[in-house]
């Protein structure tokens, strides 16, 4: 058993070193090189500090991430409290719906905002028609709105778990000792959920900082870190890989610090949702209960509305960029008339990536959970790194690393799969190790004791016991790979255009109808498998976050 | 039927010597208990025998054959786990058949042996059920059937009853003992419950800090504890520190707790500090007649139905416990003087630590 663990750990470390650490090291290296000659320099960083544009880029990104974090907490904490402590009609359904925005592609939500409130948006034109002008949603306001509406579940999930982890007797004890209800909330409830709030909030911050798709859709010409890195690396006119490297390093530094703080808080306090008796629902007047119901459902519906709008608009006819109220499947015809290839590519790449990720991730998760050693601790740490690295930066690193030399991967499908696998591996590792943690080790020992060898026990007992959880992980990886944009847009080659790439180019160009159809396809592709197994997913998300 | 010989077995975890140079001989068909507080090394020792923890030095032999280098799945032991470890994805019958399948027993024989094993643990007819339909006590019976059915060289019990409620625990321990005797299997039983150990064992090893304090029959362990630790761990004895006096050829007087105890034999050199173990049932309420006596005052009465426990203070204020029958001395109020008689042979003296 020990040999099995060592082999798995070493293989995983080699894999991560080649396809994660080595490419990142090259990005770091590029940031210290003079573009063209290759000499060492700090000039790239100096240029950033001197440039108003780049400082603005960093400032805008940090501002959006900070505002999104604040707003996500502002709606996430009350929602979590309502879900935990108030008897809201349709609570189970609400909980399922509330987790949806995490896996639906956020740039689709951003695009919905453009379709509704953009220059030629449905709502904008309608309001203009009756003489009410509305302000521009491009730039910071729109980006913050989208981040808030798509990332707030990161706050809801851990905070909800925190509220539920307070055993009823704890609160009763505090009340029995003479604490008033507000006093109990302040002295018992808040201290317990505070780390969860910080942990969830920091996750929102990291995701918002890294995100490429949302600012790509909504920034227009305003500077944003994630978009600028992409443009500097892959832009046709003003390419400057060295500057892209320096900005990447700065972005990674920001996310890494946030991630370390987040892990610190999460490591200090772990919540178990299996409190002996969950705290009772609060007795509320009908009026208050109605208010809580409306607010809770309102938040969740508002976050899903953009996706519904995209589905509807995709069925309407566009005349140029202008929407008409005529129904038709014309947008889908345009999308598929060129070729079925992008859709087929999306499905193929996501399927390969999902299977490979779980095949690699499950044994690693098992070893990390069962065989604690210095080596598996190192693996656990390295496996966390992809969380702090945006898809664009990883893709840039992969291109620098595998564009020449002994292993040339650029231009094919394999490099896309590698990028997806590396990005989703931490999730696969964490979800399968969470499953293993729930399995009693004495089950395996009983099997071995009864005469079945350790490797056969793993194959015939442990894997079947993990299976239901692994299927959930597989589907989640599949969904997120299918809607991946930030790495795909850097890495795709002519034969391997995906639906997300089609949509990105349609938005950049004038194909509003095409983009809406592509966005609708992405929503369906991600939502259908999700709804098929939503109960399992819910459980997993809460364990993984 | 297997005899087990353990020689100089050692295992350290970091700086902790979990099992420290332990040697034991366990006879054919014996139910041998490893008893001790948590952290004493009893579970580590059991898991070393099962093969889940590597042996650092020393040896384990079954019937003269060394098994400590064999992998766990080839040691032919049947282990009953504290939390049952019933495979949730298999039926009761499949759980019991698991080890037989691993041993490639023909299918027809498996079916009849599984039925017989379930009958033995009074679960006939439960075969097709799913484990989650069973209660804790029933799951424990399945675990026992699963371990018995393979007719292992040795049965290993790792605190098998600690997850059951008190009444079920006393019932199950009798069943475990009867099954083990009926099948004549050698068994090693780990527990921290001294009453359980006394009730079912042929012999008991009391462990402390990875070392053996005493190996003996239950009666001798209880009546003649060789160390102060064993005396204190088995039964809530009164430990009273004192100073030995001069041996009179038969007894030694010991000055303790502001009074004097008479102890059989020469316990220590005159003037040496000793520790006396006075069992609560060794002290009897008397009304002043001869023999060895000690005086105390009643502090508190715990009435337990058939028996009662009296808490009393010795002249210097030391608290002691006295076991009395339920109907005795009911008219005594706290503060009342007590005269306690004892047999000097029932008091054990240990050198003070």
From TrEMBL, chain A:
Signal sequence bounds: none
Membrane-crossing residue ranges in chain numbering: 53-81, 93-117, 137-163, 183-206, 242-261, 294-316, 347-369, 381-400, 458-479, 485-507, 514-533
Pfam families the UniProt entry points to: BPD_transp_1
Alphabetical UniProt keywords: Cell inner membrane, Cell membrane, Membrane, Transmembrane, Transmembrane helix, Transport
Localisation per UniProt entry: Cell inner membrane; Cell membrane
Taxonomic placement: Bacteria, Pseudomonadati, Pseudomonadota, Alphaproteobacteria, Hyphomicrobiales
Keyword Kinase set for record: no
Gene Ontology biological process: transmembrane transport
Alphabetical list of PANTHER family matching this protein: INNER MEMBRANE ABC TRANSPORTER PERMEASE PROTEIN YDCV (PTHR43357:SF4)
Domain ABC transmembrane type-1: 58-262, 343-533
Gene Ontology cellular-component terms listed: plasma membrane
Name of the protein: ABC transmembrane type-1 domain-containing protein
Family to which the UniProt record says this protein belongs: Belongs to the binding-protein-dependent transport system permease family.
Membrane topology term: Multi-pass membrane protein
Automatic annotation (TrEMBL), chain B:
Keyword Transport: yes
Record InterPro entries: AAA+_ATPase (IPR003593), ABC_SmlMolc_Importer (IPR050093), ABC_transporter-like_ATP-bd (IPR003439), ABC_transporter-like_CS (IPR017871), Mo/tungstate-bd_C_term_dom (IPR008995), P-loop_NTPase (IPR027417), Transp-assoc_OB_typ2 (IPR013611)
Database matches in PROSITE patterns: ABC_TRANSPORTER_1, ABC_TRANSPORTER_2
Signal peptide positions (record): none
ABC transporter domain location: 4-234
Keywords, sorted A to Z: ATP-binding, Nucleotide-binding, Transport
CC terms in the record's Gene Ontology section: ATP-binding cassette (ABC) transporter complex
A GO molecular function held by the record: transmembrane transporter activity
Listed GO biological process terms: quaternary ammonium group transport
Pfam families (alphabetical): ABC_tran, TOBE_2
Family: Belongs to the ABC transporter superfamily.
Function of the protein: Involved in beta-(1-->2)glucan export. Transmembrane domains (TMD) form a pore in the inner membrane and the ATP-binding domain (NBD) is responsible for energy generation.
Protein name as annotated: ABC transporter ATP-binding protein
Annotated source species: Bradyrhizobium japonicum
Origin organism lineage: Bacteria, Pseudomonadati, Pseudomonadota, Alphaproteobacteria, Hyphomicrobiales
